[in-house]
Amino acid sequence: MRFGEKMIRAGKIAPFVNAGGPPETQVSRAEIALQQAILTLGLPPDTRLVLPMLAQRYGYGPTPLREALSRLSAKGLVEAVDNRGFRVAGMSRDDLRDITTARVVVETGALRLAMEDRAGAWQDDLIAAMHRFSRAANANPDLNQNEAFEAAHKALHTAIIAGCACRRLIGQQESLYDAAARYRRNLSQPFGDAPSVVAMHQTLVDLVLGGDVIPACAALASHLERTLGEVYPDSQFV
């Protein structure tokens, strides 16, 4: 029996209460709950996701759980195992390199579109997202245990490219962010101190707002590639 299954059977993971609701609402809630468990290692890599055990923990029926797992499979957090159901996606250096390559292509392309359009509302939203990020980081210096910081971090990276006005690119960015965050949150060394982390992101945002596309995209690519080196220090991104 795998670690995650033992944790569920033994009741080591707190039950999640299903508040009910329409089928689509139940699917969305199940997806959110499962995704959070995967990102925080409540469901570790390679754990078999057995529907009866998940139903016992989360309180959802097989149909919404199966649909939620299919959605997470599309995000790369869950893998279908032939005709035997699902398991949490594994973690490896090659997988993180693949995620990083995709992030660089998607996010720099989206940023280029946003900077060429230079919508005023996008710039205002980016400034506001940076402010919220700074406030969340400084509110609790232990960034690895700061869930408000993690949410603000994701929102900031989305805000950087949101001016591209392409919902499919933004959706890909959000899914790839989650896939990379699983590595960063659970394998890498702790974040640096809050002032340094805020300053690093402020430099990136300033370049984006400065309007020079090439250095801004290069800085974003370099920023995204940091995760691979932090998780696997002997890696070089080529």
Descriptive notes:
There is one protein chain. The protein is mainly α. It has 2 domains: 86 residues, Winged helix-like DNA-binding domain superfamily/Winged helix DNA-binding domain (Arc Repressor Mutant, subunit A); 139 residues, Four Helix Bundle (Hemerythrin (Met), subunit A). Helix content is 68%, strand content 3%. A 3-stranded antiparallel β-sheet has the order 1-3-2. β2 and β3 form a beta hairpin. The radius of gyration is 19 Å and the shape is globular. The N terminus is likely disordered.
Notable features of this structure?
mainly alpha, single chain, 3-stranded antiparallel β-sheet, 2 domains, Four Helix Bundle (Hemerythrin (Met), subunit A), 10 helices, Arc Repressor Mutant, subunit A, 238 residues, disordered N terminus
Describe the secondary-structure layout.
Elements: H1 3-10, H2 23-39, E1 48-49, H3 51-58, H4 62-74, E2 78-80, E3 86-88, H5 93-117, H6 120-139, H7 147-161, H8 167-186, H9 194-210, H10 213-231
Antiparallel strand pairs: 1-3, 2-3
